[in-house]
Amino acid sequence: MAVTFRIYRFNAEKDAHPYYQEFNVDLPAGSTVLDGLRHIKDTMDGTLSFRRSCRHGICGSCGMTINGVNRLACETQITNLRSKKIEVEPLRSFPVVRDLITDMTPFYDRYEAVKPYLIDLKSPPTDRERLQSPEDRRKLDGAYECILCGCCTSSCPSFWADKDFLGPAALLKAYRFVFDSRDQDMGERLRIVNDKHGLWRCHTIFNCVEACPKDLNPTWAVAELKRAVIRQKV
Amino acid sequence: MFAGSSNTGATLWFFQRISGLLLVVLLLLHFGLIHGTEVDEELHRVTYKPVAERLASSTWKTIDLAFLFLAVFHGLSGVWMVLGDYVHRTWARNLLFTVVCILGFVLLILGSVTLLSFKPIT
Question: In this complex, which of A162, A194, A233 lies closest to B4 when CB atoms are compared?
Fold first, then answer.
């Protein structure tokens, strides 16, 4: 399978401006974009830099923009792209460190801001687990599976316009804890997301839903959080 | 950052939805009348008489005033939300907010004067 990779290159220590470099490669059938990038790095240009780890769509390291769409390189089959030319760029709106590697600090800062952990205002029980009914557990389906790849936040026009916006990943995580029956500080978390750079910057554009490689729906989670905030106010 | 604030946009967002719902009802009523019951059967178009008769009644003046207020609020709050996405400096936001408010006020005055002073020509 002969394909051409057109890859975004930038080395802050050497390059004044980013540029694109093309690599013609011949890959076995069934190869993913990550296989192609590894082939280029191993056999053609060892300076090509990108993040990868698990190769199974779990670690979230290899989120990048492939043919204009945010995806995981390890889960993207080249044949499914239906193109002999594959353009690979770093995730948009995050500062580029080198080639396809972005600085994810703004992403993690926002994630941390929503307090992504169970808040226990009383002392936890020492004689049993904190049990949850199957119904309460089901409320978290579609909210806990996020792998923090950043594909959603990077594809969000509200995030492009407002760099202080919490972004879909952080808001989905906030939903995951706000609606967890074991969490004891819904009010504090709703106070955090009820910010001018929080919930209300989401205009239900649905880019995050299209971008999510895990088929999650942050837009729906944001709508639920908005309802919860309004219910609290009314 | 992200500590919650009194001016979050929640209230504006809520009333944007409420005004949107009311506008759907009023728009359906408006189109039903203008393009339905007030269309002249012979000429196949809206004529002055039925519209003027309707606008002369205080009930319709009230309904149309509500329509005007909701439309101006809904439209300009939408503009303000878009501006909120792109304008982040406090002085620029304050300036634009003042401009949006003045624009809304002028539109409301013009629309209200037109509606309230309307008298049908007999």
Answer: A194
Determine contact, residues A107/A64, Cβ cutoff 8 Å.
Answer: no
Identify the pLDDT of residue B6. Answer: 55
The residue of chain A with its CA nearest to that of B16 is A200
Domain A105-233 CATH superfamily:
Alpha-helical ferredoxin (1.10.1060.10)
Cβ pair A185, A153 in contact under 8 A? no
What CATH number matches the domain at A2-102, 2.60.40.10, 3.10.20.30, 3.30.200.20, 3.40.718.10? 3.10.20.30
* CB spacing of B10 vs A233 below 8 angstroms: yes
Helices then strands, each counted (H, E), chain A: 9, 7
| Whether residue B3 has pLDDT greater than 50 | no
CB burial of residue A90 (10 Å; 0-12, 13-18, 19+): buried
Contacts of B14 in chain A (CB under 8 A): 230, 233
Write the pLDDT tens digit of every residue in A25-76. 999 999 999 999 999 999 999 999 999 999 999 999 999 999 999 999 999 9
Determine if the pTM surpasses 0.90: no
Interface test with A, best of B7, B8, B16 (most A CBs within 10 A): B8
